TrEMBL record:
Biased composition (Polar residues): 149-164
Compositional bias (Acidic residues): 170-181
Protein name, as recorded: Regulatory protein-like protein suaprga1
InterPro entries per the UniProt record, alphabetical: MAM33, MAM33_sf
Amino acid sequence: MLSLRTFARAAPRSISRLATASRLQLSAVARTAAWRSAVAPRLAAFTTSTRKNDTQTLIAKLENEYSIEENVPEPEAYSDTLKDFIENSPFELVDKDGSEDVVLTRKFNNETITVRFTTADINEFPEEEQPNPFEDQALEDEFDGQSGGANTKGSVNKGRTSGGNVKVEPEEEGEYDEGQEEGTTFPAHLNITITKDGQKGALVIDALAEHSAIEISNMFYFPDAKMADPKDPQTDFSRRGIYPGPAFGQLDEDLQLLLDEYLAERGVDATLAIFIPEYIDFKEQKEYLRWLKNVKDFVAA
């Protein structure tokens, strides 16, 4: 669903870019004439009738966009994956309408585990990685002509390195990536907080949910749980000088593995990593519909 909707929204931008490129080929004389024409007085363009027509056109476009997006099934009902997690997971879902932030919380013995994520991650998906109907063939032709290198045809994407490069490995014979037909995945940033009853301290973990796995980026310890989620400038300032610890990838590999298992025991595992990106996709669609309706109602009032 993500890839289809991203494709649909990306296509108009691709057409717009092509049109812009064509306009940039105008000669200097033509551009000057267009500029003079644009700045010339046009009193008729500011009539009330024109404004009303423009407003009605905008309202009609918003209504049309809403009717198209409303046909997507997710806003009407949870998918089986979402429904199963919400009904059977120990986490309680806190999702406020109109907010881009979502919270999952649960108790584990004397601990409280809170996982926060946001729909903003789906909007930050790099535009150059979104499907572009006008560039697919060009990319295929380019890859066909390559010999060797990380992006050579016949290699499989194995994630990204810390420097942002794509790690690839030779494709094994008969290997099939089911995700290729399910749509493009995207990294969802997680903020995980663990506190204990009767204790002041807190653990805060920055992580990514991607490719059905939780990848820890950093782990912090705060002597005061209030520093984990500061509510005032003074608390926020006081946490800045605390030693943050090394980057998670610099820790001993056995220690990394044990910390991964520590989180998995508390439900921060592959099941959560599958749920979160899909829920972000679901919520973003729901919030987009609400946004379209609110804008249309405001314009039409």
